[in-house]
Amino acid sequence: MKLFTELFVAIDRTTKTNDKVAAIVDYLRLTDDRSKLYAIALLIGNRPKRPVRTADLKRWAADMGGIPQWLFEESYHIVGDLAEAIALMLPPGTSAVDYPLPSVIEELATLPELNDEKKEEIITNYWRHLGKDERFVFTKLITGNFRMGVSRQLVIKALAVYLDIDEAAVAHRLMGKWLPAKETMATLFAEPERGIRDFQPYPFYLAYQLEGAPELLGDIAEWYIEKKLDGIRGQIIVRNGQLFVWSRGEDLLTDKFPEFGPLKDVLPDGTVIDGEIIPWRAGQPLPFQVMQTRIGRKALSPKILREAPLAMVCFDLLEWKGQDIREMPMQYRRNLLETLLSSTAIPDVLLLSDLMPFNHWGEVEIFRQRARDFRCEGVMLKRKDSAYGSGRRKGQWWKWKTNPLTVDGVLIYAQSGHGRRANLYTDYTFAVWGDDGTLVPFAKAYSGLTDKEIAELDGWIKRHTLERFGPVRSVEPYHVFEIAFEGIQESSRHKSGVALRFPRILRWRRDKKAGEANTRADLQQLLDAM
Amino acid sequence: MLEFTEQGIYCPQADLYIDPWQPVKRAVITHGHGDHARWGMGCYLCHRHTAPILRLRLGPEIAVQVLDYGESFTANGVRISLHPAGHIVGSAQVRLEYAGEIWVVSGDYKLADDGVCTPYEPVRCHHFVTESTFGLPIYRFPRMEAVFSEINTWWAQNASEGMNTVLLGYALGKSQTLLRHLDVALGPVFLHGAVANVNAALIADGYRFPGEYLSPETNLQKRRGYAVVAPPSALGSPWLKKLMPYRVAMCSGWMQLRGARRRKGVDRGFVLSDHADWEQLNRAVTATGAEHVYVTHGYERPFARWLHERYGLRASEVHLQGAAAEEDEP
């Protein structure tokens, strides 16, 4: 674990991507093969499940540190990160033993089956024998919010350097939920034999938001234009009579979507389709909230399946008859996709993404502005001759989203953030004016301000606190912020009666006084207009 | 014997204030940092080595009376003396004794020996006023020697890669500690003007520190691998550009937290403080034998509660107006 800890510290210390890549390559060169696999899994976010309750962890740490629970909590709020707080509050350790990373992770995986006493014994034993940084990394593994501070793309880059193979190939091999215990470096990175890794999806090709004028993209005739739907991006894979449905977040969702079950008997072997999975009825998409009502559930009742029926709106074909066709032009892939979907036996859970028949960029712009009327969030622009790339690349595919809805809200609560924003008040709650002149909270948001603005606001919050509730402070209703969001829904769970989709801070309205913020009635109007 | 008033800590019997933040007639000053030594006092009373700092920062015309550590005077029956606080050069705890009752106002202090200022000495008392800048158990600092050795190793590594090393620390206190422990065999050391000014003010009292003032005329063109000591305010200023290519480190107790380290946007954060950490605060408070403890400057509430629960002391939190939560820990 010492080498891995050094890697973590090296990555944590620098903001320069080249240094991070170099640190990973160094680590790969120094460590053994089994540790490599576990480290790679951690680096790309395949982390172990949290094996113990947070409350237990806090209690054991406080006991070992000889401090009362309230003082532990108070200190934890200042640190903002549980693993770091624990590492700082334990009495100095010995750091005498170098535990191999794989055995640590495998032992942690056995913890859920043990009784509390045994769990405490194992974890405190590690704590006693690890140095400060090692303790932090070890505890991070337990708390389950393990993030290494490198993007997947950087890990891919480092592996490509180390293995001396193509980045796209590395990206492909890392897809899906593979288990470090079940792989070797050879099995994970060799060209897979057919039938061995049937489950493996392709890296999703992602589009950047179009910032400039669309005219800069050239002749509109060279572009496919599609609606950008608000669902879950996914891949449907049929190989050797098996079906796999992956989300972009690389969750295997096959069981969540029984609608797609019949596809394994209908789609030819060696088919991979890329599209948007979305609740759909009577030729229309349903709001995203309908999807949310079923995505979190373990058991899917017939009622849920009836109320939130899903379909995939297909827009690309990545594999056809077992051949990877991502390098072929989009036009070719699209034609094959159309042929596939128009062949008779395909159930109606696979829909074709419509091409929008625009002749001028001006028409696209008008459509984009009114996108919500057409139940989409904007348009996708894809070059007809584009290959299906890997990761986020500029130039070939663009998303062009409609402008967000906005409301001016008053800051009423603030909570300190985590990680880089620990000990800074960065999580805000905003309110609008209710009919009776009281402030009604309607949105929480924590992104959208610059570091400088955050620091300024943090100072103000600390000086203008009205009350404290644990880590939360209520503040004088003074500052007004323009809150942007993508959608608005009626909600009985929220005080304001509405739930917002993707709320974020668009700008600090220093020109407005609290009294000039929007009202609950304004929100109702937005809701009625949807 | 002492009151916590709008102007500062006040002794009515002796009619004088300790570290007041509004102009008063007579002020005892624990040390030269800006949040303790303010402008406009009729007369300043401080340790001999604090006097040149006050003149540097508040002007040569101020009226200053000096004392040595352990030397005492009497004001209307109150016997007053200064004792080493170990915080920075000239820093002092103020001991006041009247009718058998002893109070100690510690100002800022640390127990670790920084090799520059006179090390902290515990003073027995009945009432102890303590700071609590790092009064939480998350602040257990590494040994200073270990940090100095890390700093020198880092400087050597930077130099070997052709990079200059910029060390940021408060101009009064932290900078002198750094300069005392930098391994000057590694290369030349340059000083920001603010640091050079403090060093110059301390020369008359026999303090000598390595380093050459980095003036606008200093030619650095052919130099590589040198170290520069500068105050934190230099971060992000155009002044730094001249030192390219460089790596920059913040030296502060706040660097103990990863979030603070990352927020500063520096290459390294070294945990180096003029203040007592959690262990030292506990040791200091218990060593005084005081039954009444007044906690100021920092985590007043939790530290006071801890002292009460853990040691059964009558500990209370005191919120001094002048003590804003400053990130630069002056």
UniProtKB/TrEMBL annotation, chain A:
What Pfam family does this protein match (any one)?
A: DNA_ligase_A_C
What is this protein called in UniProt? DNA ligase (ATP)
Judging by the UniProt lineage, the source's domain of life is: Bacteria
List each copy of the ATP-dependent DNA ligase family profile domain by range: 303-434
Its EC number(s) = 6.5.1.1
PROSITE patterns noted in UniProt: DNA_LIGASE_A3
Q: One biological process GO term for this chain?
A: cell division
Keywords from UniProt, A to Z, are: ATP-binding, Cell cycle, Cell division, DNA damage, DNA recombination, DNA repair, DNA replication, Ligase, Metal-binding, Nucleotide-binding
Which reactions fall under this protein's catalytic activity?
ATP + (deoxyribonucleotide)n-3'-hydroxyl + 5'-phospho-(deoxyribonucleotide)m = (deoxyribonucleotide)n+m + AMP + diphosphate
Q: Which GO terms describe its molecular function?
A: ATP binding; DNA binding; DNA ligase (ATP) activity; metal ion binding
From TrEMBL, chain B:
Protein name, per record: Putative mRNA 3-end processing factor
The protein's matches in InterPro entries, at most eight in alphabetical order, are given as: MBL (IPR050698), RibonucZ/Hydroxyglut_hydro (IPR036866), Xnuc_lig_assoc (IPR026360)
**What is the scientific name of the source organism?**
Parapedobacter composti
Q: Which NCBIfam families match?
A: Xnuc_lig_assoc
Its domain of life reads Bacteria
| Gene Ontology MF annotations | RNA endonuclease activity
